[in-house]
Automatic annotation (TrEMBL):
Residues 27-131, 132-239, 240-343, 344-443, 444-546, 547-650, 651-735 form the Cadherin domain. SUPFAM superfamilies: Cadherin-like. Keywords: Calcium, Cell adhesion, Membrane, Repeat, Transmembrane, Transmembrane helix. It is found in: Membrane. This is Cadherin domain-containing protein.
């Protein structure tokens, strides 16, 4: 028999082991991002990513912040390279942060690469303008010319642009009448006088100045400027009265009292100190005390020598200014035969209404003398320094000579002199000024601001309105009412002016404006108004509410790390921090594969694999930022959709089938089996030969191997039906030869 040639073949599998010969490579050499300084802690900043051409641990990368994070504002995920905020940011401390980031593989001799992340921090209006001083104390000499500089105010605001642009203005706390006396440059802060200021009119001014930025909404602060006027010797002494009359008996001993003259000077200190001197007349017979103005005799006076003396007295202040009008003192020497005029009453009392016209008769005084040939003349000696009254010298009729206001002075006592020849008599005239309803009730400020809390109960006291009326009696009795009362939420006590709540306030209405009217009970009735602004502040009485009862989202298992894929949203009816919401994952986050930013945005923190876990049920909490926060929970279900990421795997790398020769065609040889962990069509397996085989048939679906003719060893290919992306081969060996 001729020898039959036989052959065999074997599979040689060569595994090439990786060496760590590739450094990580970042996608970008420099990353840049702009963020706002007011983002909450934990917010997304940037995702950095590097690749490594090696495999295994040599390509397993770890990220870290190498430098630039001395303030501790940022954190990086070691596994994913996701950079987030780790603390509250402040642009005023640093407006740009340069983070040096490393990517390091896990090889035995690791390789490291670096990149930079430049974080530009954008400004928000979070800085209040700040004065260099909270209170300024300024001294100015009175009568300094208009435009005299008092101070240049300075306020700083660390914000940028409009947020840091400061303008100065008078605060409404400074009355308009006071504001008009000063000029304030809105840009430079230069404060100067608008007119000459007189210390004797007003010696001290308190200004409230506001520094406001141009942000939205604007922020402001207030400082106080105390202005004290220094005295200048701008006033001469003024005598009142100017004319003095005194009777003295003849032969009175030296040192006898004659009268006292009085002059006043409104200046301060030595500028207002008055000295008196007799500058004309028989000064050798009289003496005046230079400090008190008391005049006494130096010698006994003889009526036969001279019946009357006239002295001129001058007043001089400590600064050398002399009185413009000198006092005239008439001294009459009388004996027992002299008969001075005698008034019909030692004291007269008259009543008048205020605001009467000039020349209105108030009353009449009358004096008589036993000397029938003597004419009597009358004059007002004192008690009317402002010259509001006049007396007819021949009749004693007293009239009004100026505007007499009861609120300025309600009672006057005049000393009236009657002269009959050389001798005089005197009487007191009491004038009582009766009230007219000539003053409206007066609020200290026409505009007021108060704060209220939304949960105050009915009856809670909001504000105490107070108006004063200087009139008398019913003319000065004030009652209160509300002219403007939004939604009838407020009540005012008619007599006391106390404003209280009648119903709940709404924080959605940030403020209410109430007009308070004060009315007197006079005829005609007079009124004035006050505008009260009530700002309503929030109480944290509303928990966050999610816009859905639950959420379900499906994503591909191949979604890259750091990608953002879904956002939950909750609302809170409160305002401010009470209404600001942050989110967190409480449970269900197996292997920490998902993250959530404070704004509710979900992102992927680690690689997903549906074949490991295909469903996640997360419990998410929404919490407000109040001091005592309220919260709400919601369930978020995340389903992973399959991608074709697993190749079919045979249940054995080698199959050995024993098959007798000369079997019929179609005889069963054996069964190969492969499995694919993917889902759906991606998991359906189809079988085929790697190269055509004339001796066997392979069922594409079941993997059954049957004979067609004489057997020869074959290689079987298993592939996915759907895409054929992955394949695996195995050898089928006959019972004679093994490879």
């Amino acid at each position: 028999m001729k020898p039959v040639a036989r052959s065999s073949f074997a599979s040689l599998v060569i595994f090439v082991n990786d060496i760590n010969d590739h450094p990580p490579i970042f996608q970008e050499a420099v990353y840049r991002v702009d963020i706002s300084e007011d983002i909450p802690k934990g917010s997304y900043i940037k995702g950095v990513s590097a690749t490594d051409g090696d495999s295994g641990q040599n390509a397993n990368l770890r990220y870290s912040l190498v430098s630039g994070n001395s303030l501790g504002w940022f954190a990086i995920s070691e596994n994913s390279g996701l950079v987030t905020s780790a603390a509250e940011l402040d642009r005023e401390i640093a407006s740009q942060i340069v983070l040096n980031i490393s990517a390091k593989d896990q090889g035995l001799q690791p390789k490291i690469s670096y990149t930079k992340l430049i974080v530009n921090i954008n400004d928000v209006n979070d800085q209040i303008p700040t004065f260099t001083q909270s209170t300024y104390h300024i001294s100015l000499t009175e009568h300094s010319p208009a435009g005299s500089e008092l101070v240049v105010l300075s306020a700083t605001d660390s914000d940028l642009g409009a947020n840091g642009t400061v303008r100065f203005s008078f605060d409404p706390e400074t009355p308009v009448s006071i504001q008009n006396k000063f000029r304030l440059d809105a840009v430079s802060g230069r404060l100067s006088t608008a007119t000459e200021l007189d210390r004797e009119e007003e010696g001290f001014y308190l200004l409230h100045i506001k520094a406001t930025d141009a942000g939205t909404p604007p922020l402001y602060s207030i400082c106080k400027v105390n202005i004290t006027l220094q005295d200048a010797n701008d006033n001469s002494p003024v005598f009142y009265p100017v004319q003095y009359f005194a009777n003295i008996k003849e032969n009175e001993p030296s040192g006898s009292f004659v009268t006292t003259v009085t002059a006043s000077d409104p200046d301060l200190g030595r500028n207002g100190t008055v000295k008196y001197a007799i500058t004309a007349g028989d000064s050798y017979k009289f003496h005046i005390n230079s400090n008190s103005g008391r005049i006494t005799t130096l010698v006994p006076l003889d009526r036969e020598e001279k019946t009357s003396y006239q002295l001129q007295v001058t007043a001089t202040d400590g600064g050398g200014l002399r009185s413009n009008t000198q006092a005239i003192v008439t001294v009459t020497v009388v004996d027992t035969q002299d008969n001075p005029p005698v008034f019909s009453q030692k004291e007269y009392s008259f009543v008048m209404f205020e605001n009467v016209a000039v020349d209105t008769i108030i009353g009449t005084v009358s004096a008589t003398t036993v000397d029938l040939n003597t004419n009597i003349t009358y004059l007002i000696a004192s008690g009317d320094q402002r010259g509001l009254f006049a007396i007819k010298g021949s009749t004693g009729q007293i009239t009004a000579s100026g505007l007499i206001d009861r609120e300025e002075q309600a009672f006057y006592q005049l000393r009236v002199i009657a002269r009959g020849g050389e001798v005089t008599g005197e009487a007191l005239v009491n004038i009582t000024v009766k009230d007219l309803n000539d003053n409206a009730p007066h609020f200290i400020h026409n505009v007021e601001h108060v704060s209220a809390v939304e949960n105050w109960a009915t009856g809670h006291q909001i504000f105490q309105a107070k108006a004063s009326d200087p009139d008398e009696g019913t003319n000065g009795v004030v009652k209160y009412s509300l002219k403007q009362n939004p939604k009838g939420l407020f009540h005012i006590h008619e007599r006391h002016g106390l404003i209280t709540l009648t119903g709940p306030l709404e924080v959605t209405t940030s403020s209410y404006q109430v007009e308070v009217v004060a009315s007197d009970l006079g005829v005609p009735q007079r009124t004035s108004s006050l505008i009260l602004t009530i700002s309503v502040y929030d109480v944290n009485d509303n928990a966050p509410v999610f816009d859905q009862l639950s959420y379900e989202v499906t994503i591909l298992e191949s979604e890259p790390v750091n990608s953002r894929f879904f956002k939950v949203e909750a609302s809170d009816k409160d305002s401010g921090l009470n209404g600001e919401i942050v989110y967190d994952i409480v449970s269900g986050n197996t292997n920490d594969v998902f993250g959530i930013f404070p704004d509710g945005q979900f992102y992927i923190k680690a690689e997903l694999d549906r074949e490991v876990q295909d469903r996640y049920s997360l419990l998410v909490v929404a919490k407000d930022r109040a001091v005592e926060p309220l919260s709400a929970n919601v369930n978020v279900t995340i389903l992973l959709d399959d991608v074709n990421d697993n190749r079919p795997l045979f249940n054995s790398t080698n199959y050995v089938f024993h098959f007798e020769e000369e079997q019929e065609r179609g005889s069963f040889v054996g069964l190969v089996f492969a499995e694919d962990k993917d889902f759906g069509p991606n998991s359906e397996v189809r079988y085929s030969f790697e190269t055509p085989q004339p001796n066997f048939e392979l069922n594409a679906i079941s993997g059954a191997l049957t004979s067609v003719s004489d057997f020869d060893g074959s290689c079987i290919l298993c592939e996915r039906k759907s895409m054929g992306k992955y394949s695996e081969t195995c050898r089928v060996l006959d019972n004679h030869m093994h490879y």
